Amino acid sequence: MMVGGRYLPARAAVLVALAIGGAAAVLLGLRERPPDAVQPFPFNHRVHAAAKVDCLACHAGVVDSSDERLPSLAKCRSCHASAAGQQSRAKQQLGVLLASSATVKWDPLLRLPDHVAFSHPRHVDAAGLDCLDCHAEMVSLASPPRYERTMQMDACISCHKRHHDNAAARRGTANCTACHR
Fold first, then answer.
1. What are the structural domain ranges in the chain?
2. Best label site of 31, 75, 174, 179, fewest CB within 10 Å?
3. What residues pair up with 150 in beta bridges, in sequence order?
4. What is the spatial distance between Cα 49 and Cα 138, in angstroms, rounded to a whole number?
5. Phi-psi region for residue 20, left (φ > 0), alpha (ψ -120 to 50) or beta?
Protein backbone atom coordinates (compact mmCIF):
# COMPACT_ATOMS: atom_id res chain seq x y z
CA MET A 1 0.00 0.00 0.00
CA MET A 2 1.35 3.41 -0.93
CA VAL A 3 0.73 6.37 1.40
CA GLY A 4 2.25 9.82 0.84
CA GLY A 5 4.55 8.54 -1.91
CA ARG A 6 5.97 5.77 0.31
CA TYR A 7 5.16 2.09 0.47
CA LEU A 8 3.98 0.80 3.82
CA PRO A 9 5.06 -2.63 5.01
CA ALA A 10 2.36 -5.30 4.64
CA ARG A 11 1.54 -5.34 8.36
CA ALA A 12 1.09 -1.56 8.45
CA ALA A 13 -1.04 -1.68 5.29
CA VAL A 14 -3.34 -4.26 6.92
CA LEU A 15 -3.64 -2.11 10.04
CA VAL A 16 -4.47 0.96 7.96
CA ALA A 17 -7.10 -0.99 6.00
CA LEU A 18 -8.65 -2.34 9.21
CA ALA A 19 -8.73 1.13 10.74
CA ILE A 20 -10.44 2.59 7.67
CA GLY A 21 -12.96 -0.26 7.57
CA GLY A 22 -13.65 0.04 11.30
CA ALA A 23 -14.13 3.80 11.04
CA ALA A 24 -16.55 3.34 8.14
CA ALA A 25 -18.55 0.77 10.12
CA VAL A 26 -18.73 3.10 13.13
CA LEU A 27 -19.80 6.07 11.00
CA LEU A 28 -22.47 4.01 9.25
CA GLY A 29 -23.58 2.41 12.50
CA LEU A 30 -23.04 -1.11 11.14
CA ARG A 31 -21.73 -4.02 13.10
CA GLU A 32 -21.49 -7.73 12.52
CA ARG A 33 -24.26 -9.57 14.31
CA PRO A 34 -23.10 -11.85 17.10
CA PRO A 35 -23.20 -15.54 16.09
CA ASP A 36 -25.89 -16.30 18.68
CA ALA A 37 -28.14 -13.47 17.43
CA VAL A 38 -30.09 -15.28 14.74
CA GLN A 39 -33.67 -15.01 13.57
CA PRO A 40 -36.05 -17.89 14.37
CA PHE A 41 -36.19 -18.64 10.63
CA PRO A 42 -34.88 -16.87 7.49
CA PHE A 43 -37.80 -14.51 6.89
CA ASN A 44 -38.20 -13.43 3.26
CA HIS A 45 -39.45 -9.84 2.98
CA ARG A 46 -39.16 -9.97 -0.83
CA VAL A 47 -41.81 -12.72 -1.14
CA HIS A 48 -44.18 -10.92 1.22
CA ALA A 49 -43.73 -7.59 -0.59
CA ALA A 50 -44.39 -9.29 -3.96
CA ALA A 51 -47.58 -10.76 -2.47
CA LYS A 52 -48.61 -7.17 -1.56
CA VAL A 53 -48.66 -7.88 2.18
CA ASP A 54 -48.92 -4.51 3.91
CA CYS A 55 -46.05 -3.82 6.33
CA LEU A 56 -48.48 -3.11 9.16
CA ALA A 57 -50.10 -6.53 8.76
CA CYS A 58 -47.02 -7.93 10.53
CA HIS A 59 -45.64 -4.82 12.21
CA ALA A 60 -48.76 -3.18 13.67
CA GLY A 61 -46.89 -2.36 16.87
CA VAL A 62 -44.98 0.44 15.19
CA VAL A 63 -48.14 2.56 15.19
CA ASP A 64 -50.23 0.81 17.86
CA SER A 65 -48.32 0.28 21.09
CA SER A 66 -50.77 -2.43 22.19
CA ASP A 67 -49.46 -4.71 19.42
CA GLU A 68 -46.00 -6.12 18.75
CA ARG A 69 -43.48 -4.38 16.51
CA LEU A 70 -42.11 -7.73 15.35
CA PRO A 71 -44.65 -10.45 14.56
CA SER A 72 -45.53 -13.31 16.87
CA LEU A 73 -46.18 -16.83 15.61
CA ALA A 74 -49.89 -16.11 15.99
CA LYS A 75 -49.48 -13.35 13.41
CA CYS A 76 -47.65 -15.76 11.05
CA ARG A 77 -50.28 -18.44 11.68
CA SER A 78 -53.06 -16.08 10.53
CA CYS A 79 -51.75 -16.38 6.95
CA HIS A 80 -49.78 -19.60 7.08
CA ALA A 81 -52.24 -21.93 8.85
CA SER A 82 -51.85 -24.58 6.18
CA ALA A 83 -49.07 -25.19 3.73
CA ALA A 84 -49.83 -26.07 0.15
CA GLY A 85 -47.47 -27.19 -2.57
CA GLN A 86 -43.73 -27.52 -2.41
CA GLN A 87 -42.21 -25.63 0.48
CA SER A 88 -38.95 -23.79 0.80
CA ARG A 89 -36.64 -24.63 3.67
CA ALA A 90 -37.73 -21.42 5.45
CA LYS A 91 -41.41 -22.37 5.13
CA GLN A 92 -40.60 -25.83 6.47
CA GLN A 93 -38.90 -24.21 9.48
CA LEU A 94 -41.92 -21.96 9.97
CA GLY A 95 -44.21 -24.99 9.77
CA VAL A 96 -42.29 -26.72 12.55
CA LEU A 97 -42.50 -23.60 14.71
CA LEU A 98 -46.23 -23.18 14.02
CA ALA A 99 -46.90 -26.81 14.96
CA SER A 100 -45.09 -26.36 18.28
CA SER A 101 -45.99 -24.24 21.27
CA ALA A 102 -42.80 -22.24 20.84
CA THR A 103 -42.57 -18.49 20.93
CA VAL A 104 -40.25 -16.57 18.66
CA LYS A 105 -37.77 -13.91 19.62
CA TRP A 106 -36.70 -11.78 16.71
CA ASP A 107 -33.36 -10.02 16.74
CA PRO A 108 -34.11 -6.41 15.69
CA LEU A 109 -32.15 -5.22 12.66
CA LEU A 110 -32.20 -1.56 13.64
CA ARG A 111 -31.16 -0.31 17.03
CA LEU A 112 -31.50 3.08 18.63
CA PRO A 113 -28.97 4.30 21.16
CA ASP A 114 -30.38 4.16 24.70
CA HIS A 115 -30.52 7.95 25.00
CA VAL A 116 -32.79 8.32 21.94
CA ALA A 117 -36.57 8.18 21.91
CA PHE A 118 -38.11 7.48 18.50
CA SER A 119 -41.81 7.53 17.71
CA HIS A 120 -43.06 5.66 14.66
CA PRO A 121 -46.59 7.13 15.12
CA ARG A 122 -45.12 10.64 15.06
CA HIS A 123 -43.40 9.87 11.75
CA VAL A 124 -46.30 7.92 10.21
CA ASP A 125 -49.30 9.88 11.51
CA ALA A 126 -47.94 13.40 12.01
CA ALA A 127 -45.40 13.50 9.18
CA GLY A 128 -47.36 11.23 6.82
CA LEU A 129 -44.40 8.99 5.97
CA ASP A 130 -44.86 5.56 4.43
CA CYS A 131 -42.90 2.57 5.78
CA LEU A 132 -40.87 2.42 2.56
CA ASP A 133 -39.74 6.03 2.95
CA CYS A 134 -37.29 4.75 5.57
CA HIS A 135 -37.24 1.00 5.03
CA ALA A 136 -37.15 0.69 1.22
CA GLU A 137 -34.35 -1.88 1.26
CA MET A 138 -36.52 -4.37 3.16
CA VAL A 139 -38.67 -5.25 0.13
CA SER A 140 -35.64 -6.65 -1.69
CA LEU A 141 -34.32 -8.86 1.14
CA ALA A 142 -34.80 -12.60 0.71
CA SER A 143 -33.17 -13.31 4.08
CA PRO A 144 -32.15 -11.33 7.17
CA PRO A 145 -29.01 -9.23 6.70
CA ARG A 146 -25.77 -10.19 8.43
CA TYR A 147 -25.40 -6.74 9.89
CA GLU A 148 -27.44 -4.84 12.40
CA ARG A 149 -27.55 -1.09 12.16
CA THR A 150 -27.50 1.38 15.00
CA MET A 151 -29.24 4.49 13.81
CA GLN A 152 -27.08 7.60 13.68
CA MET A 153 -28.16 11.20 14.23
CA ASP A 154 -26.85 12.23 10.79
CA ALA A 155 -29.44 9.97 9.15
CA CYS A 156 -32.23 11.62 11.14
CA ILE A 157 -31.03 15.17 10.47
CA SER A 158 -30.53 14.60 6.74
CA CYS A 159 -34.04 13.16 6.42
CA HIS A 160 -35.56 16.11 8.29
CA LYS A 161 -33.64 18.47 5.97
CA ARG A 162 -34.84 16.55 2.87
CA HIS A 163 -38.44 16.97 4.04
CA HIS A 164 -38.12 20.66 4.91
CA ASP A 165 -41.54 21.29 3.34
CA ASN A 166 -43.13 19.10 6.04
CA ALA A 167 -44.07 21.05 9.20
CA ALA A 168 -43.49 17.99 11.40
CA ALA A 169 -39.95 17.59 10.00
CA ARG A 170 -39.17 21.25 10.71
CA ARG A 171 -40.37 20.92 14.34
CA GLY A 172 -38.15 17.88 14.85
CA THR A 173 -34.94 19.57 13.78
CA ALA A 174 -35.46 22.49 16.18
CA ASN A 175 -36.21 20.53 19.34
CA CYS A 176 -33.41 18.33 20.73
CA THR A 177 -35.50 17.05 23.64
CA ALA A 178 -38.05 15.57 21.23
CA CYS A 179 -35.60 12.74 20.51
CA HIS A 180 -32.93 12.87 23.22
CA ARG A 181 -33.68 11.70 26.76
1. 1-32, 33-178
2. 174
3. 111
4. 9
5. alpha
